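Case study: TIGR03960 family B12-binding radical SAM protein.
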Amino acid sequence: MSVASVFPRLEGKLPSVQKPIQYVGGELNSVVKDWDCAASSETGGPTVRWALMYPDAYEVGLPNQGVQILYEVLNERDWILAERTYSVWPDMEQVMRTGDEQGPIPQFTVDGHRPVGAFDLFGLSFSTELGYTNMLNALDLAGIPLHAADRTEDHPVVIAGGHAAFNPEPIADFVDAAVLGDGEEVVLAISDVVREWKAEDRPGGREELLRRLAVTGNIYVPRFYDVAYAADGSIEAVVPNRPGIPFRVRKHTLMDLDQWPYPANPLVPLAETVHERFSVEIFRGCTRGCRFCQAGMITRPVRERSIETIGAMVENGIRKSGFEEVGLLSLSSADHTEIGEVAKGLADRYEGTNVSLSLPSTRVDAFNITLANEFSRNGRRSGLTFAPEGGSERMRKVINKMVSEEDLIRTVAAAYSHGWRQVKLYFMVGLPTETDEDVLQVAELAKRVIATGREVSGRNDIRCTVSIGGFVPKPHTPFQWAAQLDHEATDARLKKLRDTVRDDKLFARAIGFRYHDGKPGIVEGLLSRGDRRVGRVIEEVWRDGGRFDGWSEHFSYDRWMEAAGRGLAGTGVDVDWYTTRERDYDEVLPWEHLDSGLDKDWLWGDWEDALAAADGADIEIEDCRWTPCYDCGVCPEMGTEIQVGPTGQTLLPLSVV
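Here is what the predicted structure looks like once written out:
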């Protein structure tokens, strides 16, 4: 395949599509290397070439930190070339498929506008399973066979990563490999394997390259595993089909985040994106133990960045990007052991400037007014967001989100009394053992929040936005065995809740209500806990025009259900079998050969504790950062440890040049 830029073919067609700027490239801090960059490097040898994709539109994909970090880590090596690609909108897809006198225009990178099919590796980062149809579209536009079995050594090795890769079985037919966990070190290890194979003149072809990746024990190659099904449709076993292939594939965990201060050269978008800020990940992992939370479970253990590193990353990012907002990110940012010192140090440093600080993720029980005031010292006081998740105290015990109603009221009272006017509360509907009454408690809680705000502030312009998400059971969590609530029941509960809020004349105007219907959640549930048979459904949806399924205006529940009817015909299973059915301990789950470090018996015990809590038992799994280890398995299994402060370091003053 030609490696020449397709931009000369593309440029004249850009005025015919929406937001053409997203296809132009040339962002500040982007990198375009020579195709044979290794030839002029100190090390010499073959060049290893990566095309990295976040399978969504540019405006969503460019801010993604995972892709930005890998892009930078890879391009730091003088023998590796890494470029980015994103999903094209339907109007651009039509332009590309129509093409010109040379034929269709292939999927291209935004850096060098090179055809994705010419690269050695095509890496896709999935934060949600609803991006799978976009992957198939990109493969097809790139001229890469959809099915891994049909590819030759002339095609890129297609690798999935991100949170959804912890169960890649639904896309096993389409990807050559999957990586579990942190990507910084593993992408370099993969590059080493590819480089060595190319230097040896590609012995054994594609099969041998994949074998070399698989025998490391850290890279999952689906073609090297066979799945056997029982008569009732359940999985009997997933076993290697070649010598030397491990029975279980382990996740990667990056330790000592201070040694990996990325992104150090943040990309600055040319078009408007969903996040217009520079973000610094202040720690990775979470051990709060929320039973629904896949991100918290699969990213253990907690690893903090020091205050000194955080300060250096913030200053470097502002200087190199020009962003005026800095977000301090993690799964629960206020849990950083030195968050008070971080907040005060950064607020002192940037007081009187245009730089504003934000803490997007805050738990009710970790919030305090001093912290909030530090982050709003420059006068930018946005609304506060808290996530009780469950409407009733009973539900919060079931999910191990140990935040009492009094905790929440005390927190919002402090916020409203110190000048905040807007609070956003996030809840889920459809949690295990949930009843209509549990959901209706959301309305009562929101009313009490408004009443408290009016009382402590003496004002009537107090607002509370209630945002509702549907619960989807996820792999590698205690709720991986749970039945998912069907979309009809989900919608009925949401309607009751909405009507309860609207019918109260005293509070209706003060409470905003945002929610999605239950149908997208069912599709996400099918893809989250599906096995290889679900791949046929994904392909059917894509062939029927499915694209951008994470966008409500493009999502079609009927298309998915009709495709499931065709794709699952003759298998003995259906959508309900994957979604609304509860599993038991003995069932072989599609992802059991993929090791997140979590002990199955511990997860099952926590699931049983959730059911006991539903019946009134007072059971809480505390955060192991501050309590003795409760044997989830991660640290001994993965050879890791919790890395938290306090470090005793301080936020260093800026040096004056």
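For the exam, be able to explain this: The first helix runs from residue 7 to 10.
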